[in-house]
Specification:
eight-stranded antiparallel barrel; three-stranded antiparallel sheet; globular; Cyclophilin; single chain; alpha+beta; 3 helices; about 260 residues
Length: about 260
Amino acid sequence: MISPDMPIPPEQRIPFPGQPAPLPVVLSPPETGPGTRPAGHRPVLMALLAALLLVAAGAGAYYTFSASKKPDKKKDGLPEAGIYPTAWARMGTDLGVIVVALFGNETPHTVDNFIKLCDRSFYNGTIFHRVIRDFVIQGGGFVPGLGQKAAPFPPIKLEISPKLNNSRGTIAMARTSDPDSATSQFFINLVDNPVLDPDGYSSGYSVFGRVIEGMDVVDAIGESPTSRQATPQGYDMDDVPATPILIGGITVLSSAPE
């Protein structure tokens, strides 16, 4: 599936998180995001997604977050992996609050772009437009009715940290098949998705933070019934929640939430 801001993309977003406009290839949150289902979930789709993600980037020794590991309450980071948050974001949704630790030391331009969008209230009133069970949830580029919301800033260059990967609970930017096309769409991984990491065939998706509170909310969104729906832009989108799930707003915090 492709979404406008892929990773699971929006633009076309392939089932990888992508960017709309075509859905993100793997699930790419529109902008394109990952456009298809996870490899273990739907092999054929995953292959398509990987193809959409395209191009190579060296694979590093990534640190895989443990779904059961409790974050360090002082830093909400993983000191043993040399990962420390530089800011936090509190996302209000129809199903509850999600708090994300942002790793500006690992992907500075990506985090800066995300913070600027939050400070502009860009995400207020947008929706999670793509939900693929056992894969990702993608949002940040469409409003109710599936009208696409144009990002106010130009696309950013793909940033890949050798310390981060697309493991459960991490948040990454969706994009189109062009590695340097991410704008506003993002996706949150529901499971470990190594297919979204860079390898000899794909440039991967930029991970820039992880959920430290509200993973139950993320999972609830991931269980939402979905359907294929028409958009005002003239194309149909798959995996759209039957009942819109709104993002009321995202507030950036300079200190760890209590």
